[in-house]
Amino acid sequence: KEIEVSVLERSVTADNGSLQQARLELAELDKKLAQFPGAGLQTIRLYRDVVTQQKILEFLMPLYEQAKINEQKDNPVLVVLDRAVPPEKKTKPQRVLIVLSTAFLSLFAMIALAFGLQGVARKKDSGRAWDRKVATRVHKISAWYGVDVSS
Predict the structure, then answer these.
(1) CB 5 within 8 A of CB 19
(2) How much of the chain is in helix, strand and coil states, percent to nearest 5?
(3) Residue 118: CB partners within 8 Å, gap ≥ 6?
(4) Distance from the CA of 92 to the CA of which of 38, 56, 63, 110 falls in 20 to 30 A?
(5) What is the rounded average pLDDT of the residues 2-25?
């Protein structure tokens, strides 16, 4: 109010109504502050803090709004070009073909293994030590699985 009164005193004449009104308001404020000296200072400090916080808020709010806008711009946009639909017809390789080929390969592998085991079992009777050792192990393994390869 003191600043307002001093500005009015410089810009208008002493008989101006707004200057007199401002002087009266200043006088009333001074009377109230004189009644409560501690409370008056505390109020002024609190008011100053509020004004400071308000100025900070006025400065930071546009920056905050701009940051929010920039954040929205930075997000990548995902556009679905073509929606997924289940196929009308299954593609290859067919499961039946895979199962049958695996079964035949397993059958041929087992036949080859059976002939191989029988051949090793026959070599047991030969005179070499290595052949006897291999044949003995084959007999132990075949006994373990319950397979007779002695013939």
Answers:
(1) yes
(2) 75, 0, 25
(3) 149, 151
(4) 110
(5) 87
